[in-house]
Fold these 4 entries.
Entry 1:
Amino acid sequence: MNQVASTNVAPSLYRRSARWLWIAPAVFLVLILVIPTTAIILRGATFEGFRDVLNNSTIKQALWFTAWQALASTALTLIVALPATFVLSRFTFTGNRALQALITVPFLLPTVVVGAAFLAVLPSQLHYTATALIVAHAYFNLTVVVRIVGARWEQLHPGIEQAARTLGASPFAVFRTVTLPLLRSALATASGVIALFAFTSYGIVRTLGGPGRATIETEIYTRSVLIGDMPGAIALSIVQMIVLTALLWWWAKRHRDTSESPQISVAQRSPSTRGQIALVYGIALATAAVVIAPLSALVWRSLTRTTPGATRFTLSGWRAVTSSTTLSAISTSTLFALCAMVIATVLGLMVALGVAYGSPRFVWLERISVLPLTVSAVTIGLGILITYDTTPYDFRSAWMVTPLAHSLIALPLVVRIVLPVVRQIPRGLQSVASTLGATPLQTWLTVDRPLMSRAIGASAAIAFAISIGEFGATSFLTRRSSETLPVTISRLLSRPGDALRTQAYALCVIVVVISMIAIFLIDMLRPSRKAK
Amino acid sequence: MKKYLLALIALSVIAASCSSSTSSTDSSANTNDVADGPVTLTLLAHDSFTPTPGIFDAFTAATGIAVEVVQSGDAGQLITKAVLTSGNPEGDVLWGVDNTLLSRALEADVFSAYQTPNTKFMDATLLHDIPGHEVTPVDTGDVCINYDIAWFKSRNIAPPLTLDALTNKQYANLLVVPSALSSSPGLAFLMATIAEFGTDGWQSYWKSLRDNGVMVVDGWTQAYGTEFSGAAGNGDRPIVVSYSSSPSAEVIFADPPVDAAPTAVASLTCFEQIEYTGILRGTKHEAEAKLLIDYLTDLTFQNDLPLTQFVFPVHSGAVLPEAFTKYALRPENPLRLEADVIATNRTTWLDEWSAIVLK
């Protein structure tokens, strides 16, 4: 009941406006998620489908494998990402923002590219092993920790830790007893998101895990698309939905953020002592190296062709890239990503503000906003296909379906990133502003928004990334007369011939560069965080 | 404040470009609905459908019908969607269902039958599986064992020429194949072994392959591009499952140009894949769709196929370019399986296969 009490503190000045905020996100979720999923379940679910699936030993194995690789991937991601998160959110230093953008890059690479990059750098005895796929998941999800935990870490006033240090606590004791408890909710959110991604991961499992390692998500795809067993696929999809929803609600209940930060700050400092400088740059460089290694394999491969006994440089891949089809793929991808980013960020903000300020009853909205991550992408896509198929509601050929599908997947993340930050905003400031005569919107813009800008920037960046990387099986959900970059890349990689291969890798490098620029610009939009 | 302005400008640019693209698709959709206006046919195809750009201009000039190509995923995804939307299709004509997947489409009654006059230029064996003319053959290809010529030459080992040979100890740990569950050439290779060893014999063959160290990967891209030694030179396995036309692609897309292909095909291991096109049942433009089927099976389009998609045309009058005939092998008697045998057993075979190979 604690959390209800704390939300009740929400200033009444927001409540009137916030009461209406749930409408748009709820309509969106019902139209794009609930109706299509229900339609496909009604069409395809049969009792036999369930019986066969539940009795199938492959499926039981898949469920077990899915769960443990998700846990292992989450643990590894946290271990690798926390030092970098500490450095990035606590210190200003040259290259801070560039490193932040760099860490986001793996997340927005199409999974076929991450797969190719990893096969290029991993020793061949690790190809098609569980280790390879766990390492790739960690690589892929670094940015989730850096952005979600970083947004919270940055808000903690360094004075709290300094006070503990002054009282004689060792740095480790400070971290364990002061910092960690304050970060707990952000860590829980990030782990939840990563575990969910790893649980429903599709492309990486298929390229790196090898054909013998099935997860629930790949099994759903195999049954529906490759074998044509729709009842089996639907049954599995329902099992996955139930398992994940139950886990998520239990997780959310356990880790509801009730702590209020005693002081809030957006202060960072430069590393001052020699030890700090070494620590900061050491961690930053090590993280950069980890991120860059697979990426440099892409650059190398775009520039070379290997014949037995010799490696030669060639620019032909890069020359071919300037063709008009490639350029149109680049602009299509960018446009889709921008649209998905705007839709997801705006709707996500509405959910967060509605839940935090509207009424405690709106907690249901927070809960259903996470559903897109639990429903298999194949199920949503096929559902949309059979739902909106009658004129005048035949939207199957509308290009907006693609960015809408992308924003559906990004929405839960935006909510997860923004909501904890909204809850941390001290209520007193808002009352002051409104007492002085500011309207709710003015108050929000002047008081709340600056404190949330990092979280909003983070969610926009992640939404953009999700769209440009075309998550999971979404790529085939929508038809397109203009190719997006991931499609062009996988088409080029699926043909024999060296010239096409160098061209594909050149395109991968272009995806990396575009993404870095976009992320960098999005990060620039938020105010400077340097302590005055 | 400046940052606000920047963000605001960026937002409005995005909104503007979003809405302008919407309106452009809307207007083209509207012209579609006008009954007397020019008709635009939608051709649904898989991602590997890559004809020369502008190939449909001649068709439009002759008939006044425009063609919009819409690609969505690989052949399996294409069929899945066609089956779900059977009777209320997303387009008018579908390109790219092959004989290993055909049964799924026929069972769901996806197509509207039509016999193009061009069938008289086709070999009778191509029409064998479709007596009702639900679909029309457009090209053929063969899935075969490919090997790295230099690898075998430098070690003085004879390359494997039959499926049987692959179980010999001298070829232990040399073969990489794409999974039959997730890849179309992988499925075709499984069919090849079933055609060769029979519905009761292929299981023990695959057990021997497994014991001889076959590597199974997810798709053709990993098998050929990553693990095979003959193509990019990255992998260390010199035997792979690929197409009979792969050696000619290695020559045509070589950089710098080469005179001889680095890879070769074992011709006795080939399984024939026939690719079909068909009119989607429920289209509002059936008459126009028939004209498109005629065009796809006529010489202009058929002659374009070899060098753009690395398949063999079905029209007996089509001319094969030299680069293609020189390096692409055309097996005289490829392995074949009847479509109804495939239809009845497909799921069982895949279950048995994954139990043997993937466990």
Entry 2:
Amino acid sequence: MLSVAFSSALKDFVRPGRIITWFLIAVVIGFIGKLWVGFQPTQSVATYGQVMEILGFRILALASAVFGMQVLSAELEQKTVVYLLTRSISRPVLLAGRSLASFVAVSGASLLCWFAIGMGVLGPRAFQTPGFWMDAIVLLVGVAAYGVLFIFVSLILNKAMIYCLIFAFGWEAFVPNMPGDLFYISIYPYLKALTNHAPVESTKKGIMDVLSGQVTDLTVPVTASWIVLAGIIVGFAALGLWVFSNKEYLPREEAE
Amino acid sequence: MINLDHASRWYGEVIGLNDVTCTIGSGVTALLGQNGAGKSTLMRLITGQIRPTTGQITVFDEDPFGNPNVFAKLGFCPDVDSFPEHLSGKEFVLRMGRMMGVAETAAKTRTAEVLELVGMADRADKPVKGYSKGMRQRIKLAQAIFHNPDLLLLDEPLNGLDPVGRREFMDVLQSLAHQGKAIIVSSHILFEVEQMTRSILLLHRGRLLASGDVSEIRNLIDQHPHRIRIRSTNARALAAEFAKLPYVLSISVEDLTGEVEVRTRQADQFYSVVGDLAMHGHSIYEIDSPDNNLESVYEYLVGN
């Protein structure tokens, strides 16, 4: 039944219109990367890292929020959740199948952008660039980490998309630049630690450093990052399965 | 099949269902009540979408909440008019069927069967977003009966159907009922319900006011005497005979139509006397009880 839930959801998530949309986003991002490296041609590898941090990982968070909401929130909004919840498929299996489908969709969108950034900034030599392939692995870890978190939020809160976007584009974008250790309560710094991109050399910090969370020199040890990310993935996945198995879900208007 | 034992359901401070105890078995049962009476809450409890706040509910002897074993034997046609609009009716039914654990090939065959049954076989390849309300109702019914469930719950199923569609829909229900299925139909349109079944569950403001056969319930409503109309060639003579009966409360005669209307609290005894009178020469050619119907029972129990 897991495969049925998975394939059924994947057909919904990966429709031609959506594929075209994410493909166009990737093309635009690749083009931006190509323009970007033109401003600092001597630091192409560092620029690649900067573009990945500013755009690549934001696209990952955006795609996670968009497809994460498709797992349950969209069904509640469209009032079609009643059909799903009266099938002879257990709730944990249903959630697992639909979540996996959303992870596949997010992975597709994120890896498309990663590839476009690599080609735009580095060209074909991206494949030989140190850290390029590692970024793909980190993106996949990010898919799972953002995915389980956002899906969990959608299981417990109405209008979860707003909270997820505020987290991804507000909290996560600026907390790494703030003094103190608030950045521990986020996902991006751990992913950033795993990628270990070289910073762009510059005489003073600018907006790009703010957006890529490089104003302060706070770092997280790589081992700790793996452990925290694994904890987030396992913890929120388990919590999500438990909540979905026990909580009542009614079409949105009726629930309010 | 379905047992409710002092089941109540609260939504915050609002009560949806109040201390309902009843058993529902096979055949067609109508769930009647005005908007807000608790019909949808009861449907949601039976279909395991929500849990009772207090009390217990079992379906096929199991707790229905999120229970795949129960859903394997239960088909639900919800009142919400929502679908994944990008799918065709056929794709939707097939997808729902697959999620009932039916293999791909068998699911395709069964999809064709149920679409034929609900009269959508020739139109099911078009996207749902272009469907009329009646077509949507048929698709909802198709997904509900896909797995040949023993228990079928239909929430306001006749909404949006044209007269021919209603007739066909009722025929499908009757044929399912004759197969021994339990069918629960919620409606607030008494006329429609009356054509489907005489067995009702009447809800009002979350409480179960009455359950059982309409006639039996009518007999229990003692404070409202039965009205019985008898047409005869000699209405006055017949009225004189009725006047001798101690349990007849009032008699009115309409000479023009030859009609006598009697009000009594003991309808069964009265009917036996009418039979005797007919055998002793009174030419009685029509007996009718205008308040022995669902609408009267509903009005007596709920008021206006």
Entry 3:
Amino acid sequence: MNTRSNFDSSLKQLKDMSLEMARLSEIAVKEAMDALIRQDLEKAKQVIEADNVIDELEFKIDDKATLMIATQSPVAKDLRKILVGLKISSEVERIADQAVNIAKSALHIGKEKHIKEIVDIPKMMDMALEMLNEALKAFYTEDAALARKCAEKDDAVDEMYGRLVQELLGYIPEKPSSTNQITQLSFVCRYIERIADHTTNIAENVIFLVTGKRYDLNT
Amino acid sequence: MSVFTITDKAFDVKDFNLWYGDHHALKNINFPIRKKEVTAIIGPSGCGKSTFIKTLNLMINSIPGVKMSGEINYNGQNILNEKLDLVDLRKNVGMVFQKGNPFPQSIFDNIAYGPRIHGKKRKRDLEEIVIKSLMDVALWDEVKDRLNAPALGLSGGQQQRLCIARALATKPNVLLMDEPTSALDPISTLKIEEMILELKEKYTIVIVTHNMQQAARVSDKTAFFLMGELIELDETSKIFSQPSDERTEGYITGRFG
């Protein structure tokens, strides 16, 4: 007989809520990027408005975790599952905030003609989101090796960030009237780089969940 | 089992086995107990934890048909081999049980009982011991005006603290506690736990408890017993965060046992 089937099902619900929150955040990032590329200001506004759904989900996760700690006296891996659920939801919430930032940049640029076709920035986003998917898979399957592998990709995102920002800033002397747009696009690169950092933190938490040991993969 | 350095052992149990008739109740136990620390023993019913604690002051000898082998070293002396004075051993290794069991005497006489047996007769000496013992268990303020009242008139929690004071009155080095709060209400339980944390400054404490949170709150080391074996002995913080053995994890997370 499983003596803690209710508790086990609550732990699973907590994990599912974190994963659902991550799924919504990923959609938000993609939608924000789409709004930026297509200069779809209505869509950008929708991304900003939808963020409160993700925020509310984070509060629900906080409440559920608090109740579980208060009523179940979790220890060892059970306790790590709850702590990691809380920490991952916090990282995911900040990823969603980056989606909002990208959407705000899209609004700042508005309908101003792009200095060039936006091709590399979505590629960088794809890299960051691929990392996110891997980190979430590692979380779902409790796979520390996959989490480590995912975190290793952060360097490539950092490298691309440096390269893209250099390239963007190079356009300023050429197109000084587009400085606002160029600055906003540089910010967007920064937001994506932050998404990869939050993802690396998720991967660290997965390793802590599985092994009980802390790793700093952000170095 | 992880190994930690013990420089200052109150007990050093080595290759210890115990049988009740044909039943092998404790199997090859190696268990160092450090001085002035609280060591908690946890494990499911029938795992041998109470049996183990009762061997430390040879209370186990009162049970017929018990056989033992190995060593229980106390102060460098194997108490299983040496011809020792049991009264003296139990003066040094006091014990408290599940439920307070005061003698049907006054509060004062309960505490003075041990010292009197050990030859203390002067009233002033006895008064001093009674006051100090009651203060040690934080009972003094509650009973100072009624030391001659019957001990059985105290509440359950007070009776248990009185019994701890009675054990302390003979100035033991070690205090064994066998589920000392299992019959108490939550506040009395917390009072005893606070007291344990105070007492460890002066005494070595070994506590058997079914309350895992209690073990986590009061002890420095935790030992997990299962079916007569010592599965894991380590720092309490380690046992409750990252136990080495999956059976320990299964037990502390409430999934078996």
Entry 4:
Amino acid sequence: MLKTMKQQGVVPAGRGLLGKKSGLGFFLQQLVKQRALVLMSVPFLLWLVLFKYVPLWGWTIAFQKYKPAKSFGDQTWVGLKQFKFMFSDDRFLLVLRNTLAMSLINFVLGFVTAITLAILLNELRKMAFKRVVQTISYLPHFISWVVAATIIQTVLSADGGIVNEILMGLGFIHEPILWLGEGKYFWGILGASEVWKNVGWNTIIYLAAMTTIDPAQYEAAEIDGAGRFQRIFHITLPGIRPVVIILIILNLGQILETGFEPQYLLGNGPNLDYSENLEIFILKYGMNLGNYSLSVAAGIFKTVISIVLLFSANYLSKRLGQERLF
Amino acid sequence: MAKSQIASARYSSAGDRLFDIANYTFMVVLMIVTIYPFINMLAVSLNDAGDSIKGGVYLWPRVWTWENYDYVFKQATILHSTWISASRTILGTLVSTFCSAMVAYTISRPEFVLRKFVTIAFVLTMYFNGGLIPNFLLMRELHLMGTYWVYIIPGILGVFNVIVIRSFIEQLPEGILESARMDGAGEFTTFLRIVLPLSMPVLATTSLFTAVYHWNSWFDVFLYNSSKVELSTLQYELMKMLQNSNASISSSGGNMDGSGGTAANFVTPTSIRATMTIVASLPIVMVYPFLQKYFVKGMTLGGVKG
């Protein structure tokens, strides 16, 4: 690669990519020579530092008893007190339970439904029909959670909501259920909502992986007398395994990031003990109660766990000889 | 031998047919479940508000009317918030797409001395986030709070988009860029005249994502501009309506029955909500099917390589 670039004259002959050979002088010389590229990227690097790296400075707030009126030097440092308080706080533990429960439900449900739908779509032979199904199935992914929550609230309404009407019509229940008014239904509703919104979208990547499977494999299996299900289990599923593993690694890193919008928008007084997750806890302590320090501590907890999980899953996958992210 | 093979083939084709019937039926049910809520909202929004109270409006309006839309667009707040939503969608998408592509181009140049440094600086930010309060304090310090620019400036670049666009640019044939340079074009000209037009397929994807993000956003309004009605977005207005009806679930444990408007213009929260839902989702519904080819490709590229 480097060699061909040298031949093409992209990289000056006899010099390394980063100009290591001639040191700082060469580097500066290149910088001047490439000033157009520098001008096109460095201003955005400054933007990146300001909007992505500078906020990390705010993590110090978690180790202080932060008072907005005081300057940085005047803040009282309290060490890990916020974290200790957090882990002894019943509300935080409840919120952690909710976060993990919703995460687990979404994780399992998300994978199973998307892979199943992708396989079923892959089995469709009428291409025009397949395309129509796909286009419609992408629709909920593009609408906002505000619209989705409005829809969910409408279909689940106790007053003429379609779900209650169907269940009553079929005789499963005799009076409408207040689906969103009772905590015990919330995780299920959230799981179903996530599936409704994203299942079609999530099939894209699996369907793309399926197109890379050699059709000759299916033909050979068919000649050997393998049925529909045997072909699915022995050819299609193994064919998408690398993609599934990569996505599992990525999603494990997100286990504490259950999202914020659906829980916040569908949450209300009666179901709060089940709907409140880490993000809402962070928002509530930070913006409503003004306890910045505790809010930031919870945020740090979330980010650190996510990074640790991501790297562990990646490492584990590497050890097991499977696909990995990096 | 031959006989048994034929028999098994016949057996499997009968099973196949059953599978196909079940599969096609399932797909039809899936489409209904996906699309019914939207059709129902559309029917309610086009139905007379007073008539909707009686219930039973499913797929088609019973008493046709434009009254609900008329009422919604006569509200100064809603009209203005629609304008804010539309303008931030257009401006935000143009700025972000152009800037992301420009940075992506620089880090796709193999000879660029800062290539590695810039790439790593960008990729790293995908793994962490300052979080709610630190970001909030930053916006306040920068005096972006309470302004329109808090919608645009923090989103000048999409880090993920930069990586996806870079993967695309790297696949472009080097010869084309080379010939432009031989004609004496500088880096910026090469980017503007050659790379940008050639990257349209991937830019269609990233700009769709960015536009959807802007059109759908309400949280930044809630966080930074909730006291400024003149900077509210359509989704934020709809969110406030949703919260009101949430509150009514908490308090009365049932539906909300308030009604508003004058005698000539009778509306209910239910029909306004349905109307707003349609207004808030229609632009997206009309655009995304046409970009399907691009975003399916873009997703695959970003998902597998990014």
